[in-house]
Design goal:
single chain; alpha+beta; Beta Polymerase, domain 2; Hydrophobic Seed Protein; Methane Monooxygenase Hydroxylase, Chain G, domain 1; two-stranded antiparallel ribbon; 19 helices; binds adenosine-5'-triphosphate; binds magnesium ion; CCA-adding_enz_firmicutes; ATP binding; transferase; metal-binding
Length: 393
């Protein structure tokens, strides 16, 4: 067992000693069996949230109405959720009510896919009600129970299916895939934030191009923001040279493939409920991408882009199979006298101390100096800059 489970074992044992059942469950069990990195350990138990809280010194009411408390133990935090079923699914979204139940079986039944419905006890034994182990072995994503019914309960599960395909490099079981084809329109009921989260995980998974093909084939792509009717443009994605490796590059790539006009990019990003920071980054990447396609960037243009934007832009060119001399660009960037505005040897105060008044002219002069330093026309020290200013007067 990996370290992370061994560290968490006393948490299960504490619950057991108090007379409750407790198991590791969901993604962590799946990932440990696949020898994948386990990033967090979820625990399911017969104890009610109030009972869980009494057993541990520190706890947080993460989602106490849904049965989840987070406890702190040995410097780690663990989400502990009471066995539950879900009822009252309305509008094909998450249920409004949960009902606590006394056995694990009911809890496993509510889970989305067989590979996510595995539990492990303190002895490392696996509870596998739906042949999840077999599906893990055969690399198959299969809905627990009737896929059609399960997607009607919560349509986000359809996006989760393609997301897990991409992350785990698995295939969709036939009936599960057919149910997505028949019900993709239900995705319209799901909040964009939840869709975005799964879409990004799909885009950044190691099999994102294969998963994207299924995302298109099942027509899920018709029911997400700004993708409807654009299948012919999106068909390029599965044929790309590589998959994107950053979230900003995923968005930049999609925007380039969809040929979103420059003045519509922020609307597109907003439609997907992206943050302003993400939108700004994506806009800068696309601007740099267009610039590089147009001409060899000047030193100052490289400086203005900055390292992160430059690297992302080069990645995009690679992904799209465009020939650019990326090493030369990176070498040139690395050789710049300064790489950030804060590295300039002077600031506005320096100019004011030399008798300049605050205002537009000062800003202009500062920009000019920065440009000259970046393009190696003045050395980046106060004497050289002072001399340049002397000569101006
Ligand atoms: P990740 O590695 O991304 O955390 P995960 O499988 O742990 O993957 P989570 O979204 O963290 O995914 O959910 C934890 C578990 O809760 C899942 O493994 C699954 O058993 C269950 N689950 C999550 N979302 C749903 C859903 N929409 N419908 C049914 N079960 C779900
Ligand atoms: Mg998880």
């Amino acid at each position: 067992l990996p370290e992370i489970f061994i560290k968490a074992m006393p948490v299960l044992q504490t619950l057991e000693s108090a007379g409750f059942e407790a198991y590791f469950v969901g993604g962590s069990v799946r990932d440990v069996l696949l020898h994948r990195h386990v990033h967090d350990v979820d625990i399911t138990t017969s104890a009610y949230p109030e009972e869980v809280k009494k057993l541990f010194e520190k706890s947080i009411d993460t989602g106490i109405k849904h049965g989840t408390v987070t406890i702190l133990y040995g410097g780690e935090s663990y989400e502990i959720t009471t066995f539950r079923t879900e009822s009252g699914y309305q509008d094909f979204r998450r249920p409004d009510h949960v009902t606590f139940v006394q056995n694990l079986d009911e809890d496993l039944k509510r889970r989305d896919f067989t590979i996510n419905a595995l539990a492990m006890d303190t002895r490392g034994e696996i509870v596998d009600l739906f042949d999840g182990l077999k599906d893990l072995k055969n690399h198959i994503i299969r809905a627990v129970g009737n896929p059609e019914k399960r997607f009607h309960e919560d349509a986000l599960r359809m996006m989760r299916a393609v997301r897990f395909m991409s992350q785990l490099e698995f295939k969709l079981e036939e009936n599960t895939e057919q149910a997505i084809k028949d019900n993709h329109e239900l995705l319209k009921k799901i909040s964009v934030e939840r869709i975005r989260e799964e879409f990004v995980k799909m885009g950044l998974g190691s099999h994102s191009r294969q998963a994207f093909q299924i995302f298109l084939d099942t027509e899920l792509s018709e029911d997400v923001p700004d993708f409807a009717g654009k299948k012919d443009l999106l068909e390029v994605y599965p044929k790309l040279q590589f998959s994107p490796t950053t979230e900003s590059n995923l968005w930049a790539l999609i925007i380039i493939l969809l040929k979103v006009p420059d003045d519509q990019i922020s609307k597109f990003m907003r439609d997907w409920k992206n943050s302003n920071a993400m939108t700004e980054k994506v806009e800068r990447i696309i601007k740099m991408f267009d610039l590089i396609a147009d001409h060899a960037p000047s030193d100052y243009e490289l400086f203005e882009a900055g390292e992160e934007i430059l690297i992302n832009t080069i990645d995009i060119a690679h992904i799209l199979g465009q020939p650019i001399s990326s090493e030369a660009l990176v070498d040139r960037y690395m050789a710049l006298p300064i790489k950030k505005a804060s590295e300039l040897a002077i600031d506005g105060r320096f100019l004011i101390e030399r008798g300049m008044r605050p205002g537009a002219k000062l800003g202009h002069t500062l920009n000019r100096i920065r440009e000259l330093v970046v393009s190696s026309k003045i050395e980046n020290n106060q004497e050289a800059i002072g001399q340049y200013l002397d000569n101006l007067e």
